[in-house]
Records
---
Amino acid sequence: MKYVINGKFLAEKITGIQRYAYELTRELDAMAEGRDIELFVPSDATADLSVYRHIKLVPSGAPAGERWEQITYGNYLRRQGAQGINLCNIVPLGCPRGIACIHDINYRVMPEAYRGSLHARISSVWHRINYRVIGRRADRILTVSEFSKRELIQYYGIPADKITVVPDSWEHFVRSLPDDSVFDHFPQLKKGEYFFSMCSMAKNKNIRWILEVARQHPEETFAVSGMLDQKRLGETIDLTGLDNVHYLGFVSDDEAKVLMKFCKAFIFPSYREGFGIPPMEAIAMGADAIVSNRSCLPEIYGDAVSYLDPDVYELDFHPVAEEKKRQLLERYSWKKSAELLLSLL
């Protein structure tokens, strides 16, 4: 059987979903010698393609986008008689067979979070169509936690034996050296004297928790990085009077490493996640993490973090023993996850 990986993620800005696709295929490549696996690459790919040595790269000659994914990639699958590997929630609807990953079904379970703009509403409908098509027609479905697996079974009636949990991991975060110049860019932050969070304005990310806690604790400093995309999410945030909250915008991985390494604790107040990589990245950098007690997060993080109630604005945490954090990191690896994917192929 020939498999062709949907390479749209190679041209997209890196979030958790694109990270998953890139790191998983990178590890799969090391195991792919002698196997008929291709990676279909859009012409505007920006990711490092030199990491692929055994998976065959197939240039598509066209830039990534919905048309590329639905028509260009879908037509290639049909011409080759190949099975698709789609790792980012979306499949070509005319050719959905093969393996597909649904990271979470937030668009289905938390629809009120995606009504703020026309773009958000269209995205919600589009994703829910794909969830249903994947559930009915994909040969195998991946997801990233037992929590997400249970929701796929509950909301879409997918048989449990059709779903395999292939989790995220963290090793990518220690691959390169951190950028200590970040404190030159953000002189308002002092090492060891701020709480750090990576957060968007999406309602499931619950940035409001950080703002409300900051109002209650003017003596503390809070740094927030991430995407505040008002057009996409139709949300705004009010930082009036919050001189102790510093929005940093998008930061690189190397900058995030330093911010995590020297923070008092990393805060992750989400209502819903499929997996939730950032706290694990922070722990890999030696930080303590304060994590929401909702969705998959207690399943993933166990006793390696402190927990918060996303509806209760209280800042309370305790340092966690290094042994607990080490045990958490040992449970997950991109290699283990790639081996699970390979077993399905």
---
Amino acid sequence: MKKTILTVAVCAALSLWGCGNPQSVTVTVTNPLDAGRAGEMVEVSIAKIYQQLNLPDTAQIVIYDEKAQEVPYQRTYDDQLIFPVSVGANVSVRYTIQQGTPSAVTTVVYGRSYPERLDDIAWENDRAAYRVYGPSLQKKGEQAYGYDVFTKSVANLVVEDRYAMELDTAVWARINALRKIGKKREADELVNKISYHVDHGNGMDCYAVGPTLGGGTSALMSDSVIVYPYCYKTYEILDNGPLRFTLRLAFNPLTVKNDSNVIETRVIQLDEGSQLNKTTVTYTNLSQPTPVAGGIVIHAANADGYAYNAEDGYIAYADPTTEPQSDNGIVYIGAVFPDSAVRTKVQFFDEPVGDALGHVLGICTYQPDTDFIYYWGSGWSKYGFKTEADWTEYLKTFARQVRHPLQVTIE
């Protein structure tokens, strides 16, 4: 009798400690749209998952879809668990999370600072690559306010190799030696072999930024005049793959009307499979509501190549590249705005700035102490987007999705 009572007591204690752990957690993802969605990233709270599983946050977990196929995931800096989902039109799908050893995940999203190239920060995913310019470039006096675009035509990571080739000191020593003895043709041929301005089979840098918003940069507008941000002051890489890259940039103080110490902070996030970067912008020390725009530069070689639609939530431009006469294709640039009150328009300069004529803009109202969230990015005619119609359809679909987000519940 005593043995039976003791056994029951031990089992009860063990149940309280761990025997009662649930075997799994179910994450239900519902698509409210009448069109299917594939590869979209969802987020769930890490703390909630581990609490539901009654596990320490150091325990390993695995995620399975409804076909019992393992799904890759990433833990992010802000304590979210992210993973890609595929959901049909107007349906729900369930993903199962349980304790286990996950398979290795191939890194498809990566970026870093390149102090060896004037403090560039460049990043990429399996679809596109991007760059922001840094303090060393600003010190040289070059004006390059906006985001730069590197085209890609392959899914694997390529930017690191591009910089390594472009900045190879041994090759540049040979180039300079050839130039010194008058062998310009041989020197130029060697430059072309290492330059990331030449497509070596995986894409290139053929986009011009200059003193503009470039490929989708945001800026406050004071009395309809763009208050250009300059190169970032400080940076922090918050996530670096395998599925998401997140970068925080802080900028030097701006003067906006009566506010002389307005400091901009951007958090830029690029996920696997997406052409667009989610960007969250905040301005401290801004005392009144102010228009804020996401903008794309318009170049003279395609003065009418822009499109915009406030109702559908996007702006777009078909950029003819830095050498329109070459076989560099078309770089498609776009921005998407979740805010249904966005206003869209074209604003030309009083006079051209080099070959830049102005911008196509999406304008929202920034309220002090809030976030301005929008998306910007690119596609290429040599990698998935044959026409401008293909690109604008992508942007319209993307805008519908961010305005009607997937609904996620945890059981």
